[in-house]
Amino acid sequence: MGYEAYVLISQASIVHADNQNDILDQADYLYGSGETEKLFHLLEQHKSSENAQLLWRLARASRDLAQLSQTSVEKKKSLTYEALAYAKKALEKDPSCFAVNKWYAICLSDVGDYEGIKKKIANAFVIKEHFQKAIELNPKDPTSLHLMGIWCYTFAEMPWYQSKIAAVLFSTPPSSTYDEALQYFQKAEDVEPNFYSKNLLFLGKTYMKLNNRKMALLWLTKAKERLAHTEEDKQVQKEALELLNSL
After folding, report:
1. Exposed (0-12), middle (13-18) or buried (19+): which is 226, by Cβ within 10 Å?
2. What is d(CA 176, CA 92) in angstroms, rounded to the nearest whole number?
3. Overall pTM surpassing 0.90 (yes/no)
4. How far apart are CA 198 and CA 8, in angstroms?
């Protein structure tokens, strides 16, 4: 796509496209430009598509729109469930695509905020399976590795009362360790150093859990000093600074 087309996209309030390859090109441009609402409106026009590549992008766009601070509570919930529906359809169409597996797992995790502890824990098994499948299909995707690390960290940190509930509900409840989480965070960093402020933060937090002060200082300092591009980056810097002050 030429420069003139990019200019037209950036100026349009709603983007239209017909050819599916053009749609994907425009979607990727808008995503890279942080044009969340324009991207959602572009892809929503094609929500009945059977194309898995388009559907997982629509799932991601729906989720990103839900995450915006100006999105109402009711709209956030409906977008979260819509995102999961698009991701599920994408998975049915192409279960061998790493991005489809990754975004299905992310969207399934998101709906856990609206469902009971039993459903949330049951979904955890499925989420893990799809993150692992995404890594198997593309071991060079640092985000999948990071998210698998988050899964491990979450269950290593699970409060005792939730662990008790999980043990009652499931003969083998989901579990992990900080060592396992660390391996995934480190692999993500090895694949693409400094790719995500949150990965730096969680390397620091995991080393704190493992009582390795020296390595915790190293990674928390990296997280604090990394240039902030997004609101999330700023939150990471703030948390990293607070943790450094506590060491």
Report:
1. middle
2. 29
3. no
4. 34
Residue 178 phi, psi dihedral angles, 5° rounding:
-65, -30
Q: Which two tokens stand for residue 56?
A: 């997982």
User: Nearest-CA neighbor of 89 among 131, 120, 58, 66?
Assistant: 58
Question: Looking at this protein, which amino acid is placed at residue 186?
Answer: Q
Structure tokens, 247: 């060491």
**Which whole number is the average pLDDT over 223-245?**
92
SS3 content of the chain, % helix, strand, coil (to 5): 75, 0, 25
Give me 187's structure tokens.
């692999």
Q: Is the confidence at residue 202, as pLDDT, over 90?
A: yes
Please give the structure tokens belonging to residue 164: 């008790």
Query: Is residue 11 predicted with pLDDT exceeding 50?
Result: no
| Structure tokens given for 45 | 């026009």
Q: Are 111 and 126 in contact (CB under 8 A)?
A: no
Q: Which two tokens stand for residue 75?
A: 């709209």
Cβ neighbours of 208 (radius 10 Å):
19
The least confident of 11-15, 58-62, 223-227 is 11-15
**Sorting pLDDT into bands at 50, 70 and 90, what band is 18?**
low
